[in-house]
């Protein structure tokens, strides 16, 4: 089977794609699918593990120790909520996972804009320098390929004393697919920090409401899907 190789280099927030293949021009993510009807769409297959995080900084020896302790606390809180959410999903078999909620909403949003997304299989590889490459079947009859990766979901507080709110992010990679080879167009991490009705003053309050707080994460990833669709089509 013939393969198309798609490649890019990932940085922290905004990601400009690069490759050994020729690039005609840098194409912004915004409005990339405006006049596109047929796309290849690849969703990540890895499950999303929700986290509970708060912002920390440390520039002194004491500060570094505080950061280390904070990271340990965040990891412990995250594991506790992951266990609670797994129990919620087990008790509610019809409930969507965070990954499926995002995927379903994005597909619906694209279809509502007249775009026909064909689900495609993509093989991802990353080297030690975080250089990503994606391989896929070159026989697809599509105008562009959109790869969704790195979906995250969390309750985040601006600091250890602030309310926790849902937050999510995702890496969107867009490629042209013409003449039996692919040209990376752009990559961008889209972040949703929208304040919602799901706010918790501390971790104890969050942990006491796993059912409602999970719905908050579901709502947030669906809002993120709306944002991605709007940016792609605007």
CATH third-level topology: Double Stranded RNA Binding Domain
C-alpha termini separation: 35 Å
Indicate the percent of residues in helices: 25-40%
The CATH homologous superfamily is called Lipoprotein like domain
Poorly predicted runs are: 1-28, 179-183
Measured by DSSP, the beta-strand proportion falls in: 25-35%
Question: Please, what is the average pLDDT?
Answer: 79
Number of domains: 1
Give me the secondary-structure category: alpha/beta
Could you tell me the radius of gyration in angstroms? 19 Å
User: What composes the largest sheet?
Assistant: 7 strands, mixed
What is the tally of beta strands? Answer: 10
What shape does the CA trace take?
Answer: globular
Compressed to H and E, one letter per element, the order equals: EEEEHHEEEEEEHH
Question: What oligomeric state best describes the polypeptide chains here?
Answer: single chain
Counting DSSP H or I runs of 4 or more residues, the number of helices is: 4
CATH class: Alpha Beta
CATH architecture: 2-Layer Sandwich
Protein name: Lipoprotein
